[in-house]
Amino acid sequence: MKTAVEIASGVAGKKFRAADVLEERLKLINEQDAEIGAFLEVFAETARVQAAAVDAKIAAGGKPGRLAGVPVAIKDNMLYAGHRMTCASKILEGYIAPYTATAVENLIREDAVIIGRTNMDEFAMGSSTENSAFRKTRNPVNTSCVPGGSSGGSAAAVAAGFCPIALGSDTGGSIRQPAAFCGVYGLKPTYGAVSRYGLAAFASSLDQIGPFAADAADLELAFSALSSRDPKDSTSVAFPPAKPWDGIGGVRIGLPKEFFSGEGMDRETLALTRAAAVKLEKLGARLTEVTLPNAKYAVPAYYIAASSEASSNLGRFDGIRYGFSAAGANLKEGYQKTRGLGFGPEVKRRIMLGTYSLSAGYYDAYYLKAQKIRTLIKRDFEAAFEKADFIISPTTPSPAFKFGEKVSDPIAMYLSDIFTIPCNLAGLCGVSAPAGFTAGGLPVGVQFLGRPFSEPSLFGLLKVLENV
Ligand code: GLN
Predict the structure, then answer these.
(1) Largest Cα–Cα distance in the chain?
(2) In sequence order, which residues have a C-beta less than 8 Å from that of residue 238 and are 6 or more positions away?
(3) How confident is the model at residue 263 (pLDDT cuts 50, 70, 90)?
(4) Are the C-beta atoms of residues 69 and 7 closer than 8 Å to each other?
(5) 0.85 cut: is pTM over it?
(6) Which domain holds residue 135?
(7) Which residues line ligand 1 (CB under 6 A)?
């Protein structure tokens, strides 16, 4: 399968056509997605129109975009004008996007072809894609396992070769964790680097859109197209000039001692993470121990903070303005029926948790305390980044699990995010890169965290690791 870089240069150089690239991927989806379940909908017709337009523009001598003819899938929580968007929830069934998310628009401006919308945990709440109201997504590497979540459909789409790039959103690990489970790359950009305009909000202070790709160069290409300062998202910023990557020599890689304790962790995952660190050391990096003493509070702080924001963000789904609507004898009953029938159990759990922690009597004990922990975690990272340029850790405590293994135990599911959540709380950038396979053949991901806006050197690091 061609990479995004190969497609863009081949289409730009008229070696092949965007239309043919698209047909090749549509055929594969047709043959295999009934089993994998990566997509909720394939936009075959509009994608064909887009691909033909890219070919026509290039044939007429127009300047090709950086993603000329590259098929890209988008998670089903991003608006694409005229297309359905459901957040994999019954409450948004039948909803049609009235405008296009800036991130999606940035890709289209670079001549990408939007191939479809991918399955996810309802409203991006979950770590296995089992919370989708519509279908099951299987891990293409081992179809008896989950693909991870919440962006499981996007990770599976790239792993299955349905498209070289897919977009996900990461609030507490939803790009990096499924990337690790499916054996692909996934980037959670620095908070503010990619516009959230047109992304259905889960927890606005944590949400970031980012790419999945099968190799580091494609990940970089996707990110360079996505990142922009957008006046429509007041938290987005212009990417500051970055220190150019000048090689691995002398780069300090921090190993947080709390993340390498091995407690509650799969042994092979830990060994492969250490092996990645040792490879980098052999190439000239310096390994150093760092400490993140407050990281142990990250999971509880996240589930309070994220659920609080979700309880407020999801208040807009009232059965009047969007999608599904159930009639009641009066307005209140209409709200109750719409929300009662429209939301699944995990979303209801989060709304209740968040509403409780924001309520007058409990605000100080829960929401405020979670915010204070967030500050402490941010300071831990600031101290760690005095000693290290990047932090390495496993992406997940264990490789992909089987369907049903954690659905009845929400706490076990929440703990899958133990290594990914601190990055969101501190607004850093983080990536999961493939680190090898367990003896049982399941992919393992290694996570690298960097200071805000250090993506350019993060890509440098990934390319070094990829080539050993
Ligand atoms: N698994 C985490 C959760 O359920 C993270 C989700 C995400 O990043 N969107 O909240």
Answers:
(1) 70
(2) 228, 229
(3) confident
(4) yes
(5) yes
(6) 4-226
(7) 124-127, 150, 169-174, 202, 306, 417
